[in-house]
Amino acid sequence: MALVVICGQPCSGKSTAAVTLSEALKESETKQNVRIIDEDSFHLDRNQNYANMPAEKMLRGKLRSDVDRSVSRGDIVIVDSLNSIKGYRYELWCIARAAGIRYCVLFCDVDEDRCREWNKEREGRGEASYDDGIFEDLVRRFEKPERRNRWDSPLFELFLSRDGIEKSSPVVLEAVTYLTKTVDSKTQDVRILQPSIATQSARFSEANSLYELDRATQEVINAIVEQQALGGAISRVTLGNDLPPIEICRPVGLPELGRLRRTFVKLMGQSSLSGPPLPTDANSGKRRFVDYLNREFGGSNA
Known about the structure:
Layout: E1 2-8, H1 14-26, E2 34-38, H2 46-49, H3 53-70, E3 76-80, H4 86-99, E4 102-108, H5 112-124, H6 132-141, E5 155-158, H7 160-163, H8 170-180, H9 197-229, E6 236-237, E7 246-247, H10 254-274, H11 282-297
Parallel strand pairs: 1-3, 1-4, 2-3, 4-5
Antiparallel strand pairs: 6-7
């Protein structure tokens, strides 16, 4: 298993590099299984992905979540995205370390002016391209990888505007060798990341938090169903434990409650990837779920 992070300016040939590396790996002696995780898999326009910081943050969360699920399947995973923020590359490196796999960064080092030209050419052909304002913002915020950073190492640099790229390109072959070389006690040029106590504890904590959240939200659903079953018009469901009541203005069936619960848990899991952590106790989980339900029902948190 291995994780390859492709990074570079917008329109620097990252997707071409990802496909080329994938084909080279599949044709190598080891016949590797490869999975490319990219932005297109979410069926969103690239300008929508980077229209504002919340949208960009959500995209990174989705990519990271997909990577986290995929690294345990035995394939080489290639992340084809801008991956322009060093803090985000560090998060991906942490995933690789927690999984105990190989990791490397493939950097498409292309001059900004050439990237600008390629973006215009794509726009002229009616292909996916960036709006000028979004393009310039992404170029300005790009954080170039550095070999001295552990999350940017080993670093393979491609100069597509100068050299082009083929499956036989020296850098591609070097990356394939690194990702497929058999490792034994004498191997020194290939590094397989080792899980630390911190990363293992973090994964356990996240799993425990999801369990607590799942249990807490189910208890809230049970309370709503039970109080509605008592009969009569109910406009408020109380939960006790200093929790706010749930304001409801109509009967709410179990199918709708189940849908709202699943949506809430999913949203909490996605937002925790790059935002606040999941609640670690039942009351915190219930409070957040009650707030969510009150927003959905149009009530207020009394």
